[in-house]
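Please fill in the sequence for the structure shown.

STRUCTURE ENCODING:
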């Protein structure tokens, strides 16, 4: 598939290995709130965030800088404890785990970082970098022979050669380094990989190769992704579902085609119209929606609908109270197929009457 950005991404046809009927989603985040102190002031980075990810699927997470994407990722990875709300991974709350159970859970969730240069130690060979997580999780590959074999397998999985095992990061291109980052994330055989801007530091053609590696791994291994990116064309290609965040809140979520083809929230429509390579709902670039003003300070979140200060549809009621969730007509309002937005005046449907 090639889109107007020139990114060519291989389409795969395999079905995603959902769990048995009735089994819990791989990841279910409910009502997560997280605030941080800044001197005497506090800001709410996440405000009642719900996210759900089925096994073998990719969830795209989008929103402008500071909306809380990385904080949410850190909560999902167990690196940041939420103030309230629940995280369930395979039905279990990881924040209740201790000792061996906690260690076993940590294996299941891994991370691919934005900048492969920054996250790889330049003095370690590719084999050492890929195998580093085994120092903590020794039982996975107990012998040196197992480790060598597994490194070879992982290099092959990400499209590198066996001989690359003994090379150092400065001997690889940016795309190859990101492949090493992915192999390292795979070393513990995770169920979920959180990818935070994994291709934004790479050239366009290399981006496509790395995205193809991620997509092939999903089909071959059944791994799921939370995929954070500012680049909506990339998110559109890789995601089954999209969650749009604004100032710490999820303001729209749904299946990728629903959110991209028929955005409900004016903010989503504006984000998409500003993406240089996307043609959203027949709009051309000349019709780009210009958002008013800057994102408000997270210390001073507008009353009512937090997007109202920048929204061209806003009316008095938007400041009076927070909008309720609205569902596009004909779309499910619960479960994995739901398409919902938080808006008093959603696009394409009547007002909420709220
Ligand atoms: N450890 C921290 N201490 C204090 N404030 C924090 C901390 N981590 C995040 N924040 C604040 O929380 C808000 C959300 O930040 P976060 O990094 O999650 O946003 P983001 O959407 O990932 O942004 P970006 O796209 O720039 O990475 C921001 O206002 C940020 O300054």
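FILLED IN BY: designer on duty
SEQUENCE:
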């Amino acid at each position: 598939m090639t889109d107007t950005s020139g990114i060519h991404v291989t389409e795969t046809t395999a079905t995603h290995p959902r769990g048995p009927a009735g089994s819990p989603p791989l990841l279910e985040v409910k009502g997560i709130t997280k605030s941080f102190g800044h001197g005497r002031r506090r800001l709410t980075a996440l405000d009642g965030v719900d996210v759900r990810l089925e096994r073998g699927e990719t969830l795209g997470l989008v929103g402008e800088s500071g909306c809380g994407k990385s904080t949410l990722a850190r909560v999902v990875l167990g690196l940041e404890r939420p103030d309230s709300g629940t995280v369930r991974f395979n039905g279990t709350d990881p924040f209740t785990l201790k000792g061996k159970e906690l260690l076993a859970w940590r294996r299941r969730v891994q991370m691919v970082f934005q900048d492969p240069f920054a996250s790889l130690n330049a003095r370690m060979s590719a084999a050492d970098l890929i195998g580093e997580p085994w120092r903590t999780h020794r039982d996975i590959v107990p012998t040196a022979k197992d480790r060598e074999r597994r490194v070879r397998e992982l290099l092959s999985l990400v499209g590198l050669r066996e001989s690359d095992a003994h090379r150092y990061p400065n001997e690889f291109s940016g795309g190859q380094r990101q492949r090493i980052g992915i192999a390292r994330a795979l070393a513990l055989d995770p169920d979920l990989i959180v990818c935070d801007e994994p291709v934004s530091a790479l050239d366009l053609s290399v981006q496509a190769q790395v995205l193809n590696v991620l997509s092939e791994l999903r089909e071959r291994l059944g791994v799921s992704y939370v995929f954070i990116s500012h680049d909506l064309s990339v998110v559109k290609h890789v995601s089954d579902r999209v969650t749009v965040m604004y100032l710490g809140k999820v303001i729209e979520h749904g299946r990728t085609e629903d959110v991209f083809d028929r955005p409900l929230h004016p903010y989503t429509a504006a984000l998409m119209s500003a993406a240089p390579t996307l043609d959203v709902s027949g709009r051309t670039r000349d019709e780009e929606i210009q958002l008013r003003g800057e994102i408000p300070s997270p210390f001073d979140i507008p009353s009512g609908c937090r997007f109202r200060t920048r929204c061209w549809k806003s009316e008095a009621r938007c400041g009076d109270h927070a909008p309720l969730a609205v569902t596009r007509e004909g779309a499910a309002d619960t479960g994995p197929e739901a398409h919902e937005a938080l808006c008093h005046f959603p696009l394409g449907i009547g007002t909420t009457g709220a």
